[in-house]
Each structure stands twice: as C-alpha cells, then as structure tokens.
Amino acid sequence: MMLDILITAGRYPDYEKNQFTEANIGIKDGKIAYIGSETPEAKKTIDAKGKVVSPGFIDIHMHEENFANEGKEYVISKLMLKQGVTTCVGGNCGVQYQTLKEFKDTINELGGAPVNYAMLTGYNWYRTALGLGHFDTATKEQWDIIRGKMQEDLKEGAMGISFGIEYDPGITFDEIIYGTEASDDPNLLVAAHYRSDCLGNIDSIEEMVNIQKHINKRFQISHLSSCSAMGQMKESLELINRAMDEDPRLNFDTYPYNAFSTTINSTVFDDGCLEAWGKDYKDLMLTDDPYKNVYCTEEIFKDARKNYPKMLVVAFVMNEEEIAEAVANPKGMVASDGIINHGNGHPRAAGTFPRVLGKYVREEKRLSLIDALKKMTIEPAKRLDLENRKGVIKMGADADITVFDPDTIIDGATFGDIATPPVGIDYVIVGGQIAAKDNEIITERAGRFISYFEK
Ligand SMILES: [Zn+2]
Predict the structure, then answer these.
(1) Which helix (H) or strand (E) holds 246?
(2) What fold characterizes domain 56-258+318-389?
(3) What separation in Å is there between the alpha carbon of 268 and the centre of ligand 1?
(4) What architecture is domain 3-53+417-454?
(5) Euclidean distance between the first and final Cα of the chain, in Å?
(6) What is the model's pTM?
(7) Taking residues 295-324, what's their average pLDDT?
(8) Rounded CA gap, 312 and 429, in Å?
C-alpha cells in the first residue's frame, strides 16, 4: 500500500495510555492508515523529529464567517487554520449570520473551507429577527416561532443550540428551557453565554448549572474567562467543578487572554460596567476607523457608542491569574471565541491554541502538554460525538493533524496586529491534505461542513 503522506519520528498523544508515543504516522485517502515503527512507502514524507504530531485542534466555540454581510470569503477560518485548528464550531453566543442552509450552501459553492465547520443554531438571532428589543419579553407565540426557525437549522445538520443571554436580558429562564426543547435529542449540545459578568457572575453560573438540571442535553458554559476573571474565578470554578462531578453533561470552555471583545452597542457596556469591573475608559480599546487602536476617554466612548454601534471594542478588564486558573483547571476546554468584523477584532482568532501551549504549558507550567492537548482535541470531540474520527490519532480516524514544535510554539497575534500568525506550527493537515505549512496556506478548501447526521 502506497501512503499519501508519512510523518516520521514525531511523538503523538496516546490518550488511552495517557502518554506521548513515538511513531511514524501514515495517511491515505484522508484517513490515518498507519501507526508504527516501520517506514512504509509514501508519496510524501514529513520529518517530525522533535515535534508533536497532534490531532488537529477542535475549536468548540468560535464565530463563523459572516457571508451575508462581508462577502463570500474566508477570514476567520484562515486564521484558525494557521494556528493548527482543523475543525471549528460556529453559531455561538446565540449569534449566527445566516441560516444554516445558507451557510452550508456557501461552503459548497466555494468548494470547501479552510477548516471543517460544524454549527449551532443561534437563539438570539432568530429572536432579534422578530423585532424584539434586547430587554423585551417575548410571548409564547414568539417562543414557538423561534423554535420553528431553529428546528429548520437542526434539520440541516446543526449540532445544537446556542444562547447569548447577556445580549438579550429579556430572555427568561423559562424561555431558555423552552428553546432547548426544539428537539428532544439528548445528544445535542446547548451552549450559552452567561447573563451577567463580574458582580452578577455567580448568579449567572448558578443559572447555567440550573439550566443543565432542567434539560436532557449537554450544556456548555461559554468562554468562562470573560465572565469570571474579574475576581470571581475561584468561586466560579468551585461551583462548576462540583456541578460537573454531579453531572458530566455539563462542561465549559475558556480562552487565554485578559481582554474580551464585543460590539460597543452591547448591553455589556451599559452604565455602571466600568465601576463594576473596577476599570476605566482607558481600559477599552476601539478597533475601527476613526478610532482604530485608540484607547477610550469618556468622550470617545460615548461618540463611538452613538455613531459606530457595531464597532468591536477590546476590553482589558480580566485578571491574568484568573485566566490561568481557568485554562489550567483539570476539567474544561480551550476555545477561541474568535470573531472578526471588517478585518478587526481580537487576537484570539489567530493565537488561542499556540498561546495556551507556549505560555501556559511551556513558560508557566500551569498544566502539562498532554492535558492541554486534551482540552483542544479529544474533549471537544467527545462533546460533539466525533471522538471516533476526530480529536485522536488512531487507525481509521480522519487525518486532521497538526505538527508543532513544543519548544517554540507561541502565538504571534497581538491587540495591535490581530492576524500575525503563530510560531512553531510546521504543518496543518486537513482531511489528509496539507492545508498549511510554516504559516503559509497551501489549500483553503480541504475542510467541509460536518453535519450532525453524519457523526
Ligand atoms: Zn459570547
């Protein structure tokens, strides 16, 4: 048998043995077809001596391309690919930018995507489409209409449902539970962005733990750091860890930055937010003209909020030590929350995974390399019921593979330049094709849409 690619002399994480194993790994027809010490013939050989041959990273929480408003091209997923991600989950925080069918059709029309894409259906998007304001209470009739829209996305292959509770404070607990009942399939994933950060944080975590108690699905607390890293992380993690011990269907994801990013018109920035965070206008950085990379004054903040409501803001309001605690917690996943508007946004879309492996694993030794890799490969794969073919190096699994140097890997993107690629990622292989090599994209079309019904 002639292999397509043979990756030699690297070490891969063997999660069954919980250790790294040195082996040659062969790929044929998009699958892992050889693992061993021999060197079967291959059309192409990659020397991975000293490198880690990891399952491609799975980003369970990001924000997909906005084909509807920004044109049919890939922006976020190209950055994802360069940081070693091979599968992404969009449609988070209740937000989506087009129906699932439109999203799928666009990927097909474009002949593939830089990474594999799975999607959730976003509750808030359909709520807003009904003309409901952020604080409005929806009627039972409107709950049904929203549910109907989400059911269409589920029929098209969405992996679950997401909520952005903070963005629409009018959403009640009962409304959330009702929304999750769009399907009675227990294998669907429900993800939610909390109701309130900082001072409201513990109540928000309790609400989400409570949601899990009321639904027969898996529940994911989204980007914990942006909710709890303002002084409440210890208490939040205790609460979540205890709840996860009781019910393993609950889990969370977190990203490794001390700043969050969202649009300036968000209710997050309503009066009193800075006092609650103990921060100042100067801790908020704007990201687009006429205030690109400008730190706010009260005057600039008010002008931007009024005249550029969709502009993304980067808010440096989280504490570094608490970010590290969330990343290093024995349970939980790493996810980027990557979002880009008009080329602007937050470096997490380009740097999340290398940053965890370089800063928190190698430099600060907060967690071991294998534990960090689990949080970005097999754990999210299990969440999506994909662990037989993704998130693992084993015979027959999809050949989604990231080859990186554990001694040099680090993020390159900064708040001033959000697209700088990382260091130390040699190869990213998607579906058996070399999609990126040394930060250069070789093909943007090796990824495809992953439907719930093929898992
Ligand atoms: Zn969110």
Answers:
(1) helix 233-246
(2) TIM Barrel (3.20.20)
(3) 11
(4) Roll (2.30)
(5) 28
(6) 0.94
(7) 94
(8) 32
